[in-house]
């Protein structure tokens, strides 16, 4: 099989024989099954086979190969994602919707911490990953401003007994040993009627960051493990029910950032940090979902119910910031750390009715409900000047919030001719929120419960023209939003007036996009091209007044323009070459003092240009089907913040290039893959969190050599 990680508007994972038989990549981006080449928006689909071929086990391993997908990270579980440059730096709420099948992950409010703690799914029993670029507010609701990242799990098969087993072992230069294992069993219970699929996985990342304060090596080592149990019942041809349970844990020994000067030089070694506290991180995710579908004849009724719980716990050493700050007031301490615990409990229910089959008018209508409770507490850990623990009389903050939303949505596609069609969609959502903060210590702030309510309408419109069955052009206008909410605001003791508004408004985004998708009749060449302009208004920002923080709106907003180009060529049998390129240019539309930015200043964490080139060759006529391939990635320079940011100090991230190589053979039912990631051992700086008074970039995994074995029974 010819293998590559990136799949665009063409099935690069299909063999020559499958291509000749007309195999297609099918996606569910518009909540119905469609050929990828027919969807009138920019999408990347990532195959599980392609991920496995390169030993990819975490989000970080594939993210920089997807055009327009950017991220900041401090280690497994602690990441912030943006698409097409829709980020203000450190986002107070997520701008990308994360989905597990059709279930939205994480909190919909700004108080649940979803923006920094993106779900890092173990990439084992996943059928594919879909990355939808551009706002998806009509079908996917709140927090899909920049797009959607969707993990699609493998569906139980009622026809055949099968098993999939994978093991991998690798070693990271300057770091530890990595290993992983996974197994999945598909068990039919009754032919065409019922089946169960069970899977389990474990991944050990050996780490490569050293804490020189303790003389401890590989503190960013991490374990990701969990499993899935999936039951499919199809008692009749018209009705099916799928019940899924998914559990995943992340355990990390320390933070995956290093200490640098703001000039870009390491404070210690290039892979060293200095932290006087251990910084463990844990994340537990539990999801139970049930999906029922019923074919009404000409239409399909779908109901999706889910309950999820996410719990977090982590420690962050904030001594470089707080020790000198308190010393300036005559309060001498030896160290400060924030000890955070948080949880989100969320119930969702979606019901939708979709037309089926070829019709002049395709339509979809539905409703959505969510209810969630979030909890957050953060006491400080204090050390005296001798390094011993001392009582916390400074600050403990505990927050509770409730978010409830009801929405109705609908869209329709009118096929005016066999070649030309129009689409439109509308979503109305109303949310109600409650928020309460309790504090203790001389910096603690307590306040009565505050409430907010708001209604938001999002919409989209598409026009599509098919030149042939293998070529089409489209134009798309779409909107997205993030909910506003209540603020707990301190009062100025001198004036009696609050330091900030008692609530903040939703922000909104409008995207204008044109694109073309096409491939030759023999699929020897394919192209996907898109260009866009984004207008982002009322951006959510953190505001500080009187020493207290709150959330506000940057009324000036920003504008982003850019484009993506995906190319695929099969010049000869067994050879596949893929290129993915993205250009992003985001800037503030006017001066924004709350962000420390001026008109025309670039948005943080957004490389202006990224490129990814992949080439794979398979000797298809050999019984061993040997393969060889490589990947070249380039990420342009970025800034980590705004130049005059009051809290998140500016740091400039340099551009970097990384090269991966791979080779493999097949022995009967066993596929063996050898790989080298980051061949040149490049110190790529992925992102930087600089709120502790020093630059703390995250460094890409050093050169890693490994082997993986996979068998399907």
What does it look like?
It is a single chain. It contains five helices and 43 strands. With 713 residues, the protein is mainly beta. The chain has a 22-stranded antiparallel beta barrel. A six-stranded mixed β-sheet has the order 1-4-9-10-7-8. The protein has a two-stranded antiparallel ribbon with strand order 2-3. The protein is globular, with a radius of gyration of 25 Å. The N terminus is likely disordered.
Span between termini = 17 Å
Find the count of extended strands (DSSP E, 2+ residues). 43
Structural class of the secondary structure composition?
A: mainly beta
Amount of helix: under 10%
**Uncertain spans:** 1-22
Largest β sheet strand count, sense and barrel closure: 22 strands, antiparallel, barrel
Portion of residues in beta strands equals over 45%
Rounded to an integer in angstroms, the radius of gyration calculated over CA atoms is 25 Å
Nearest-integer average pLDDT: 89
Shape: globular
Individual helix count: 5
Quick summary of this structure?
The chain is mainly beta.
Describe the protein's topology.
Elements: E1 6-7, H1 16-20, E2 26-27, E3 34-35, E4 43-47, H2 48-53, H3 59-63, E5 69-75, E6 78-83, E7 96-100, E8 103-104, E9 126-133, H4 137-140, E10 147-153, E11 162-172, E12 177-190, E13 194-205, E14 210-211, E15 222-233, E16 239-252, E17 272-273, E18 281-295, E19 299-317, H5 319-327, E20 335-355, E21 361-383, E22 389-390, E23 396-415, E24 420-440, E25 447-468, E26 471-482, E27 485-486, E28 503-504, E29 507-519, E30 525-537, E31 539-545, E32 548-554, E33 558-569, E34 575-588, E35 609-618, E36 627-635, E37 638-639, E38 652-653, E39 656-667, E40 670-677, E41 685-688, E42 697-699, E43 704-712
Parallel strand pairs: 7-10, 14-17
Antiparallel strand pairs: 1-4, 2-3, 4-9, 5-6, 7-8, 9-10, 11-12, 11-43, 12-13, 13-15, 15-16, 16-18, 18-19, 19-20, 20-21, 21-22, 21-23, 23-24, 24-25, 25-26, 26-29, 27-28, 29-30, 30-33, 31-32, 33-34, 34-35, 35-36, 36-39, 37-38, 39-40, 40-43, 41-42
